[in-house]
Write a structure and sequence with these properties.
alpha/beta, Lambda Exonuclease, Chain A, 5-stranded mixed β-sheet, 3-stranded mixed β-sheet, globular
Length: about 240
Protein backbone atom coordinates (compact mmCIF):
# COMPACT_ATOMS: atom_id res chain seq x y z
CA UNK A 1 0.00 0.00 0.00
CA UNK A 2 1.03 3.60 -0.52
CA UNK A 3 2.51 5.67 2.26
CA UNK A 4 0.48 8.57 3.62
CA UNK A 5 2.60 11.32 2.05
CA UNK A 6 -0.43 12.21 -0.05
CA UNK A 7 -0.65 15.22 -2.34
CA UNK A 8 -3.10 17.96 -1.34
CA UNK A 9 -4.13 20.65 -3.80
CA UNK A 10 -4.61 23.16 -0.96
CA UNK A 11 -1.05 22.79 0.33
CA UNK A 12 1.35 25.35 -1.24
CA UNK A 13 4.48 23.73 0.24
CA UNK A 14 6.79 21.78 -2.07
CA UNK A 15 5.58 18.21 -2.46
CA UNK A 16 8.23 15.60 -1.68
CA UNK A 17 8.37 12.80 -4.20
CA UNK A 18 10.75 9.89 -4.63
CA UNK A 19 12.53 8.64 -7.68
CA UNK A 20 10.45 5.46 -7.60
CA UNK A 21 7.16 7.40 -7.65
CA UNK A 22 8.32 9.32 -10.71
CA UNK A 23 9.03 5.97 -12.35
CA UNK A 24 5.53 4.85 -11.33
CA UNK A 25 4.08 7.90 -13.11
CA UNK A 26 6.02 7.04 -16.26
CA UNK A 27 4.71 3.49 -16.12
CA UNK A 28 1.06 4.36 -15.46
CA UNK A 29 -0.29 7.83 -14.54
CA UNK A 30 -3.49 6.27 -13.23
CA UNK A 31 -1.68 4.01 -10.74
CA UNK A 32 0.47 6.97 -9.76
CA UNK A 33 -2.60 9.18 -9.15
CA UNK A 34 -4.36 6.54 -7.04
CA UNK A 35 -1.18 6.07 -5.02
CA UNK A 36 -0.28 9.73 -4.39
CA UNK A 37 -3.76 11.26 -4.17
CA UNK A 38 -5.72 8.47 -2.49
CA UNK A 39 -3.16 6.23 -0.81
CA UNK A 40 -4.17 3.21 -2.89
CA UNK A 41 -0.88 1.71 -3.95
CA UNK A 42 -0.10 -1.35 -5.99
CA UNK A 43 0.14 -4.55 -3.92
CA UNK A 44 3.59 -5.08 -2.48
CA UNK A 45 5.66 -7.86 -3.97
CA UNK A 46 7.89 -10.21 -1.96
CA UNK A 47 11.07 -8.68 -0.56
CA UNK A 48 14.21 -9.40 -2.55
CA UNK A 49 16.17 -10.50 0.50
CA UNK A 50 19.15 -11.98 -1.36
CA UNK A 51 19.46 -8.87 -3.52
CA UNK A 52 19.42 -6.71 -0.39
CA UNK A 53 22.14 -8.87 1.17
CA UNK A 54 24.34 -8.49 -1.92
CA UNK A 55 23.71 -4.74 -1.91
CA UNK A 56 24.72 -4.44 1.76
CA UNK A 57 27.90 -6.46 1.27
CA UNK A 58 28.93 -4.47 -1.81
CA UNK A 59 28.54 -1.25 0.16
CA UNK A 60 30.70 -2.60 2.99
CA UNK A 61 33.35 -3.71 0.51
CA UNK A 62 33.52 -0.42 -1.37
CA UNK A 63 33.52 1.47 1.94
CA UNK A 64 36.82 -0.21 2.84
CA UNK A 65 38.43 1.40 -0.19
CA UNK A 66 36.55 4.64 0.44
CA UNK A 67 38.20 4.98 3.84
CA UNK A 68 41.59 4.18 2.32
CA UNK A 69 41.12 6.62 -0.54
CA UNK A 70 42.06 3.82 -2.93
CA UNK A 71 40.64 2.45 -6.16
CA UNK A 72 38.70 -0.81 -5.84
CA UNK A 73 40.17 -3.76 -7.83
CA UNK A 74 37.01 -3.85 -9.96
CA UNK A 75 37.64 -0.27 -11.03
CA UNK A 76 41.17 -1.21 -12.04
CA UNK A 77 39.97 -4.33 -13.87
CA UNK A 78 37.46 -2.36 -15.95
CA UNK A 79 39.67 0.68 -16.49
CA UNK A 80 37.66 3.12 -14.39
CA UNK A 81 40.04 5.84 -13.20
CA UNK A 82 38.29 6.74 -9.96
CA UNK A 83 38.04 6.11 -6.23
CA UNK A 84 34.95 5.73 -4.03
CA UNK A 85 33.84 9.25 -3.10
CA UNK A 86 34.02 10.57 0.45
CA UNK A 87 31.60 13.28 1.57
CA UNK A 88 30.23 14.32 4.96
CA UNK A 89 26.66 13.64 3.80
CA UNK A 90 27.35 10.38 1.97
CA UNK A 91 25.78 8.16 4.66
CA UNK A 92 22.65 10.31 4.47
CA UNK A 93 22.50 9.97 0.68
CA UNK A 94 22.46 6.20 1.17
CA UNK A 95 19.77 6.10 3.84
CA UNK A 96 17.32 9.01 3.60
CA UNK A 97 18.50 10.17 0.18
CA UNK A 98 19.68 13.33 -1.53
CA UNK A 99 17.01 15.84 -2.54
CA UNK A 100 16.54 18.87 -4.78
CA UNK A 101 13.68 21.28 -5.42
CA UNK A 102 12.42 21.62 -8.98
CA UNK A 103 11.06 25.17 -8.95
CA UNK A 104 8.71 25.09 -11.96
CA UNK A 105 6.79 22.08 -10.61
CA UNK A 106 7.32 22.80 -6.89
CA UNK A 107 8.34 19.16 -6.43
CA UNK A 108 11.00 18.22 -3.90
CA UNK A 109 12.60 15.22 -5.58
CA UNK A 110 14.75 12.75 -3.69
CA UNK A 111 16.56 9.49 -4.34
CA UNK A 112 18.72 7.04 -2.40
CA UNK A 113 22.03 6.29 -4.10
CA UNK A 114 24.10 3.12 -3.85
CA UNK A 115 27.50 4.64 -4.53
CA UNK A 116 29.38 7.60 -5.96
CA UNK A 117 32.87 7.46 -7.42
CA UNK A 118 35.19 10.39 -8.07
CA UNK A 119 37.50 10.81 -11.05
CA UNK A 120 40.92 12.54 -10.75
CA UNK A 121 39.47 15.75 -12.26
CA UNK A 122 36.90 15.89 -9.44
CA UNK A 123 33.88 14.87 -11.52
CA UNK A 124 31.55 12.42 -9.80
CA UNK A 125 30.15 9.23 -11.31
CA UNK A 126 26.87 7.75 -10.09
CA UNK A 127 27.04 4.01 -9.41
CA UNK A 128 24.16 1.60 -8.97
CA UNK A 129 24.39 -2.00 -7.76
CA UNK A 130 22.29 -4.67 -9.46
CA UNK A 131 22.01 -8.38 -8.62
CA UNK A 132 20.60 -11.14 -10.79
CA UNK A 133 21.10 -14.78 -11.79
CA UNK A 134 21.02 -15.50 -15.50
CA UNK A 135 22.90 -17.48 -18.11
CA UNK A 136 22.28 -14.74 -20.69
CA UNK A 137 24.90 -12.04 -21.28
CA UNK A 138 24.36 -8.98 -19.07
CA UNK A 139 23.37 -5.97 -21.15
CA UNK A 140 21.51 -2.71 -20.60
CA UNK A 141 18.82 -3.57 -23.14
CA UNK A 142 15.22 -4.37 -22.21
CA UNK A 143 12.17 -2.84 -20.55
CA UNK A 144 13.45 -3.03 -16.98
CA UNK A 145 16.85 -1.76 -18.01
CA UNK A 146 15.30 1.45 -19.34
CA UNK A 147 14.03 2.12 -15.83
CA UNK A 148 17.52 1.42 -14.48
CA UNK A 149 18.95 4.00 -16.87
CA UNK A 150 16.42 6.63 -15.79
CA UNK A 151 17.26 5.84 -12.18
CA UNK A 152 20.92 6.60 -12.80
CA UNK A 153 20.08 9.77 -14.75
CA UNK A 154 17.84 11.09 -12.01
CA UNK A 155 20.59 10.59 -9.43
CA UNK A 156 22.94 12.49 -11.73
CA UNK A 157 20.38 15.31 -11.87
CA UNK A 158 20.00 15.38 -8.09
CA UNK A 159 23.73 15.75 -7.49
CA UNK A 160 24.00 18.43 -10.16
CA UNK A 161 21.15 20.36 -8.55
CA UNK A 162 23.15 20.21 -5.30
CA UNK A 163 26.11 21.90 -6.96
CA UNK A 164 28.30 18.90 -7.80
CA UNK A 165 30.11 18.33 -11.08
CA UNK A 166 28.77 15.03 -12.37
CA UNK A 167 29.95 12.98 -15.32
CA UNK A 168 27.36 11.92 -17.90
CA UNK A 169 28.82 8.42 -17.59
CA UNK A 170 27.79 6.36 -14.61
CA UNK A 171 28.33 2.69 -13.81
CA UNK A 172 26.29 -0.39 -13.00
CA UNK A 173 28.04 -2.91 -10.78
CA UNK A 174 26.23 -6.06 -11.92
CA UNK A 175 26.45 -9.16 -9.73
CA UNK A 176 25.36 -12.38 -11.44
CA UNK A 177 24.95 -15.55 -9.36
CA UNK A 178 26.59 -18.54 -11.05
CA UNK A 179 24.16 -21.49 -11.33
CA UNK A 180 26.60 -23.78 -13.17
CA UNK A 181 28.30 -25.15 -10.06
CA UNK A 182 28.00 -28.85 -9.29
CA UNK A 183 26.51 -28.23 -5.85
CA UNK A 184 25.37 -25.45 -3.55
CA UNK A 185 27.75 -26.26 -0.65
CA UNK A 186 26.20 -23.46 1.44
CA UNK A 187 27.47 -20.67 -0.79
CA UNK A 188 26.72 -18.72 -3.94
CA UNK A 189 29.47 -17.62 -6.27
CA UNK A 190 29.09 -14.50 -8.39
CA UNK A 191 30.42 -13.02 -11.58
CA UNK A 192 30.79 -9.26 -11.13
CA UNK A 193 30.84 -6.79 -14.01
CA UNK A 194 31.17 -3.01 -14.15
CA UNK A 195 29.07 -1.69 -17.04
CA UNK A 196 29.39 1.98 -18.04
CA UNK A 197 26.34 3.94 -19.12
CA UNK A 198 26.35 7.44 -20.62
CA UNK A 199 22.99 9.08 -20.16
CA UNK A 200 21.19 12.41 -20.19
CA UNK A 201 18.90 13.97 -17.59
CA UNK A 202 17.15 16.24 -20.12
CA UNK A 203 13.88 14.28 -19.80
CA UNK A 204 13.47 15.27 -16.14
CA UNK A 205 12.64 18.92 -16.86
CA UNK A 206 9.78 17.74 -19.11
CA UNK A 207 8.46 14.98 -16.88
CA UNK A 208 8.23 16.82 -13.55
CA UNK A 209 5.68 19.43 -14.74
CA UNK A 210 3.61 16.53 -16.14
CA UNK A 211 3.82 14.82 -12.73
CA UNK A 212 2.54 17.99 -11.06
CA UNK A 213 -0.28 18.36 -13.58
CA UNK A 214 -1.35 14.78 -12.93
CA UNK A 215 -1.39 15.33 -9.17
CA UNK A 216 -3.69 18.33 -9.56
CA UNK A 217 -6.36 16.49 -11.55
CA UNK A 218 -9.82 16.12 -9.99
CA UNK A 219 -10.24 12.63 -11.43
CA UNK A 220 -7.78 9.82 -12.18
CA UNK A 221 -6.21 10.00 -15.64
CA UNK A 222 -6.72 7.15 -18.13
CA UNK A 223 -4.63 4.06 -17.33
CA UNK A 224 -1.75 3.00 -19.51
CA UNK A 225 -2.81 0.32 -21.99
CA UNK A 226 -0.01 -1.98 -20.90
CA UNK A 227 -0.53 -1.58 -17.15
CA UNK A 228 -1.15 -5.08 -15.78
CA UNK A 229 -2.63 -3.73 -12.53
CA UNK A 230 -5.17 -1.51 -14.29
CA UNK A 231 -6.01 -4.26 -16.78
CA UNK A 232 -6.61 -6.65 -13.89
CA UNK A 233 -8.89 -4.18 -12.10
CA UNK A 234 -10.82 -3.47 -15.29
CA UNK A 235 -11.38 -7.14 -16.13
CA UNK A 236 -12.30 -8.02 -12.55
CA UNK A 237 -14.88 -5.21 -12.41
CA UNK A 238 -16.45 -6.38 -15.69
CA UNK A 239 -16.84 -9.88 -14.31
CA UNK A 240 -18.29 -8.60 -11.04
CA UNK A 241 -20.86 -6.53 -12.92
CA UNK A 242 -22.13 -9.59 -14.77
CA UNK A 243 -22.31 -11.93 -11.77
Amino acid sequence: MASQNLFRTDNPAPYKISRSKIELFLGCPCCFYLDRRHGVGRPDGPPFSLNLAVDALLKKEFDIYRLRGESHPLMQLYGVDAVPYRHKNFAEWRTTGIEALHGPSNLLVYGIVDDVWQHPDGALAIVDYKATSTAAPITLEGKWKEAYKRQLELYQWLLRKNGFTVSNTGYFVYVNADKDKEAFNKKLEFIVQVIPYTGSDDWIAEVLPAVRECLQLDQPPPPSQNCEWCNYRRRAMRIQETV
